[in-house]
Amino acid sequence: MQRALFPCPWISRAVICCLTFGLLVMSAARAETGAVDPASITEATKRVVVVLPRWQGVRPGFAPRTSGRRIAPEGSGIAILPDGYIATNDHVLGDPLSVRVRLHDGRVLPTEIVGRHADTDIALLKVAADLPVFDPAPETRLATPACAIGNPFGQGISVSCGVISGTDRSATGFNPIEDFIQTDAAVNPGGSGGALVDGAGRLLGMVSAIFAQGSDANLGVNFAASYRLVRRVVDDLKAHGAIRLGDIGLAVQTLPPDQAARGGGVLVRQVDRGGPALAAGIEAGDVIIAVDGRSVSTPASFRAAAFLARPGDR
Q1: Cβ atoms within 10 A of the Cβ of 208, count?
Q2: Residue 189 and residue 71: Cα distance in Å, rounded?
Q3: Is 272 a catalytic residue?
Q4: CA dist 101 → 51, 54, 159, 305 (Å)
Q5: Residue in 165, 192, 208, 297 annotated catalytic
Q6: pLDDT score recorded for residue 139
Q7: pLDDT truncated to tens, each residue of the chain (314 aa)?
Q8: Quick one: three-class SS letters along the chain?
Q9: Is 227 exposed, middle or buried (0-12, 13-18, 19+ CB in 10 A)?
Q10: Of 121, 179, 184, 198, which residue is the catalytic one?
């Protein structure tokens, strides 16, 4: 004898509604925990380009040597602002005769170098194409999924995923000014200038450096310039062609051991006459523990936090 699974129509509808609600709850839970959405990541790849510099005396597809080692012949870039503005790493460009970019649809376009800032290793390019632009990620939380999108070894745009391993990294030794997100998502030469995104494909930062201890292999310690640092630089490069810096009017140093044993921060070594720090009541010998709500524990972290402020900011 055959049995109906749901003999009463209202029971059938109720169960189906419950199942649907359950699926919606599960989907919301995945989004809340930061699970990777393949469709969103696929869409995000359309916002990453291949950067193709051309150097003096170097054949296409090859690259010059730096410090006895050959750098990647191709790099990556991200669509950062409307109207064709692309951010990449300054070291990706080198000293080029010209630069082109290859878009996700295969088009190869010439680019204008709008501006470069060596201290943050960030450069801004512009192409005559209206590219889809990344949305910024709402937050950066430890251990949540993160995916690197770039052009490793010149093989084309690809994706590798891991987690956010660290935030507010500012003393890695790569650049004078650093505000890095650390990730274990695999990054290799050619990936510089690519995107670090969250599970929904929103921009966390721009892939910038590999900690490899003398090897080009990925060791799972990779760094991306934070979105806030990238926007700080590219907004100035777009508006002025250079970075406009504020001056707080003080100098800091590492805490001596006896003070460091009582807590973190940096020691104010000098306060300039007539500067904003003096007007705010800061004195030599004070200890600064945070800048604009961001903890500082080294002169490098203080410089990074101060750099993010623009002239006129309070």
Answers
A1: 32
A2: 8
A3: no
A4: 5, 11, 19, 32
A5: 192
A6: 85
A7: 333 333 334 434 443 344 344 433 344 434 444 589 999 999 999 999 999 999 887 766 555 555 445 456 789 999 999 999 999 999 999 999 999 999 999 999 999 999 999 999 999 999 999 899 999 999 888 999 999 999 998 889 999 999 999 999 988 889 999 999 999 999 988 999 999 999 999 999 999 988 766 665 667 789 999 999 999 999 999 999 999 998 899 999 999 999 888 988 999 999 999 889 999 999 999 999 999 888 899 999 999 999 998 888 88
A8: CCCCCCCCHHHHHHHHHHHHHHHHHHHHHHHHHCCCCHHHHHHHHHHEEEEEEECCCCCCCCCCEECCEECCCCEEEEEEECCCEEEEEHHHHCCCCEEEEECCCCCEEECEEEEEECCCCEEEEECCCCCCCCCECCCCCCCCEEEEEECHHHCCCEEEEEEEEEEEECCCCCCCCCCEEEECCCCCCCCCCCEEEECCCCEEEEEEEECCCCCCCCCCCEEEEEHHHHHHHHHHHHHHCCCCCCCCCEEEEECCHHHHCCCCCEEEEEECCCCHHHHCCCCCCCEECEECCEECCCHHHHHHHHHCCCCCCC
A9: buried
A10: 121
Whose tokens are 């750099």? That residue is 307
- What angle is formed at CA 313 by the lines to CA 116 and CA 86, rounded to 5 degrees? 25
Amino acid symbol at 147: C
121 is catalytic: yes
**Which of 76, 91, 117, 184 is flagged as catalytic?**
91
Is 91 in the active site? yes
Angle at 13 between CA 12 and CA 16, to 5 degrees: 85
Residue 40 structure tokens: 């969103």
